[in-house]
Amino acid sequence: MVETQARVLATEQAFALVEPRPHSSCRRCDPVAGCRALSLSRIIGSTDRRVRVHNPLGAEAGDWVLVTVPRQHVSMAAFLVYLVPPAGLGVGLSFGAGASEPVSLLAGAALFVIGLYAARRELRRRRRSPLLQPTITAIYPSEPLMLEKPCRSKN
Predict the structure, then answer these.
(1) Residue 78: helix, strand or coil by DSSP?
(2) Is residue 146 part of a domain?
(3) Which of 5, 64, 75, 155 is exposed most, by the fewest CB atoms within 10 A?
(4) Three-class SS state of 41
(5) For residue 70, is it within any domain?
């Protein structure tokens, strides 16, 4: 399971709107700047980090909770986004290898776009599955301490 701490902003029926808490850096990468992964997420991350999650425990607005996502869902999403479209590009380019260069590029571009569409459609289908929803798995009685996990980034 992939997990993070979050604060519940609002609730509606069986769901809650939460804002994940940014994790602390371990400062192993760089003693001054800290975690490279955290720095990168600050640069490219959006300012609105609210997420709709399944709320089977009945957390209320203002509660601190632990939100988990099944690891296989995260892995499958990465596979679909990062491997399927480039694979379509490669297949399209190889199909058009016997033809002229413009035909090869057109075939590659077409299969790349088809791969993007297929990945997006599959992710939307999976998002509707209750088994793959981010879920509140614990409610903290007060603001929790930061989750301390060893840094996995390479130096």
Answers:
(1) helix
(2) no
(3) 155
(4) helix
(5) yes
Which residues, at least 6 apart from 144, have a Cβ–Cβ distance to it below 8 Å? 5, 64, 66
Sign for the CA dihedral angle at 53, 83, 153, 72 comes to positive
**Amino acid at the residue 83:** L
Between the alpha carbon of residue 13 and those of residues 16, 54, 56, the distances in Å are 8, 10, 10
Provide the domain limits for residue 89.
2-140
Q: Which two tokens stand for residue 46?
A: 């959006």
Give the span between the Cα atoms of 4 and 23, in whole angstroms: 8
Number of separate domains in the chain: 1
The DSSP secondary structure of 105-142, one letter per residue, reads HHHHHHHHHHHHHHHHHHHHHHHT-GGGS-EEEEEESS
Contact (Cβ atoms closer than 8 angstroms) between residue 128 and residue 54: no
> pLDDT of 46-97, one tens digit each?
556 788 888 999 899 989 998 888 777 778 878 888 898 999 988 888 887 7
Beta bridge partners of 122: none
Question: Would you say residue 148 lies in a domain?
Answer: no
